[in-house]
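Name: Carboxymethylenebutenolidase
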Amino acid sequence: MNPETRAAAVALYDRFTHEGMDRRVFMERLTRIAGGAAAANALLLAIAADPAAAAITKADDPRLVIKKGSLGLKGIALDGYVAAPKDAKGKLPALIVVHENRGLNAHIEDVARRFALEGFFTVAPDFLTPAGGTPADEDAARAAIGKLDYDAALAAAIAEIDALKALASTNGKVGVVGYCWGGAFVNRLAVAAGDRLSAGVSYYGPAPATSEAAKVSAPLLIQLAGRDARVNATAEPWAAALKAAGKQVQAVTYPDVDHAFNNDTSAERYNKAAADKAWAASIAFFRQHLA
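Structure predicted for Carboxymethylenebutenolidase:
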């Protein structure tokens, strides 16, 4: 694929999925970029996340205990996906995995299993539970995310932190990792949760106002994509404000990669080298702060 065509298509897709562009307008513009309707459809398939893509881990991995359904929070309706090592020795650090603006899908469940295999008691909440749960249609999921009561979602996440701390099988420390919409959620949860949160890793997530940095207690690892100007416009000042406020923060930008470079179900945006480095950094960060 021509590099200029690819870059233009990725930038357009980012606008479509994050700025509310009408699908008809999006497809008209993508068709012009690709040079025809058939080429546009092929290009879209390569850029968009593929819900049928093979998982890195198996859904029935015998090394894990997996549950799906209500997370059992008192007075809060929140479903989710739970994955934990089957034969763990001792108490485990807990980790919340926050989904993208597509909701809790098979890819995020796969990510939760990956973290569980690294020794974390992992929960991936479905923050679209109040809207009836994550729909199969990605456009519908993004529309539902746009209507979500953000404060209620933050309150549900804080309740889940408290619930995880109280489990007999965990060590009382809870981290959070999120991607895209979930990366933004990590930043905002760090503000809202204060010292209840033990550590957070934000992948290419838009950031709060820099004035909120003083409210953060948890150490943060902020992982950014070099080509992601939309997110970096707020995330870079956010990282600088956290440093200026004396907070524990690491900010890493992976050059020459796109937004969502970690999502291995998107053929054109996934970058294995950057994703592997970011994964290793995330595991090391959580092992440091959740031990």
